[in-house]
Amino acid sequence: MTSPGPVTRDLLETFDDVRSRTLARLDGLTDAEYLWEPVASCMTLRADENGVFRADPRPAGDVRPAPFTTIAWRIWHIGADCLRGYGRFFDDETPSGDQHLWPGTAAEGVQMLVTDWSRFRTRVELLGDDRLLQPMGPRAGSYGHESYLLLALHALDEAAHHGAEIGVLRDLHLHGFTAEQGTSNEVSTTT
């Protein structure tokens, strides 16, 4: 393989930084944290009657405010919904199976995220600068006129902001946040 051009190299370096930061925040994640629902009616992973876990689907339409999601759901969203889901825009992959299937344990969920991240990163690297800057074409449907660079930057944005949200949720869990604590509208000030 030839070395990547400057656009690909810089994109992958940033992608790797986000990956490292996110995985560092997931180090030691417990199953209790993974499925923790800090507020009522969280979107999460749920086991069916056979013990198979699936991510809750997004509600139809533009629901405001958006439902709150668990760490497990956010990991699924980065891995399966975004990084794996965007595989449909590459020439070598045809989506198959239930995209909402996801492991019900923290260790397996993080490992699946690592796998999806690696696969997406490899696809971007193999494009190289020339192809990265070209439109995705008919396979991408209404996004066909958009470049692979835009797709990769969108994936990077999704991974970075949901990774940061995961970090905040872990901090809240670590510090013993409860929904009752979050309902106060009082403002305290100190002088």
TrEMBL record:
Domain of life of the native organism: Bacteria
Location of the DinB-like domain: 15-166
One Pfam family named in its UniProt record: DinB_2
Listed name of the protein: DinB-like domain-containing protein
Gene source species: Streptomyces gelaticus
